[in-house]
Write a structure and sequence with these properties.
By secondary structure, the protein is of the alpha/beta class. It has one domain. The protein is built from 8 helices and 10 strands. The strands form 2 sheets. Strands 1, 2, 3, 5, 7, 8, 9 and 10 form an 8-stranded mixed beta sheet that branches.
């Protein structure tokens, strides 16, 4: 199942609704690209307005390491040359509960210390110049090169996990587990009928896999939102 599509004309994100027999709960997956056009984020906002509960990504608290990792897309957005903006959604405007089952800054710092020092050094030394160069010289096509995402891992995903198990464990696996546990709790408590999941596309495979395995949730409908054109 395709989550983010990169085509000849641009990048699209699939809004996917999961349903399971025996429960009125619907899980609306909104796979996010953290750098897109304002129109994309307005489209996401319109879908959120139709939901009863929002489960949103976001490490809470101040973390220098997390800020360094997100610099790769925050810095290019500041230049404005690409016509793209960083994801920023005002969840308070919807008047529905918002749950953030993510790591705290303290937990992230503890996990970061478990990452080998050479990998931490590489992040600190390589991300800032990459972000600056991309902001000054990069194109939308350049940014889209590795955005394509499916619910099954490709060879690059496997290679990255094998090469950087501690880093991917911190950024993906630990946070995937928190997200899935949250959705399981919502399902068990019959907490809402239409639950939006606003997370980076890389976290969605864990949701589709685990919610199908545990409760039989399957994709029932989908629509495409344009993240940006070329």
């Amino acid at each position: 199942m395709q989550l983010i599509e990169v085509s000849l004309t641009g990048v699209r994100s699939a809004v996917i609704t999961l349903e399971a027999a025996g429960t009125p709960m619907r899980i609306v997956l909104l796979p996010m690209v953290h750098l897109g056009t304002p129109d994309f984020y307005r489209s996401v906002t319109a879908r959120l307005a139709e939901c009863d509960l929002i489960v949103a990504e976001g490490i809470y608290g101040r973390s220098i390491a997390a800020a360094a990792l997100t610099l790769a897309y925050r810095l290019p957005a500041r230049h404005g040359r690409l016509g793209l903006t960083v994801q920023k959604i005002d969840y308070a405007r919807f008047g529905v509960p918002v749950i953030r089952p993510d790591l705290s800054a303290r937990q992230f710092r503890a996990g970061w210390r478990s990452v080998p020092w050479l990998q931490r050094l590489a992040v600190g030394c390589l991300v800032p110049p990459f972000a600056l160069a991309f902001g000054l010289l990069g194109t939308r096509r350049t940014f889209s090169k590795y955005l394509n995402a499916d619910d099954l891992p490709d060879h690059l995903d496997v290679e990255v996990k094998q090469a950087l198990p501690e880093l991917t464990g911190l950024i993906l696996d630990s946070r995937d587990a928190l997200l899935v546990d949250c959705l399981v709790s919502i399902h068990d408590a019959h907490q809402a009928e239409r639950v939006a999941v606003v997370y980076g596309a890389g976290h969605m495979p864990a949701v589709t896999r685990e919610m199908f395995r545990r409760f039989g949730y399957r994709p029932r409908s989908a629509e495409w939102l344009t993240v940006f054109d070329f």
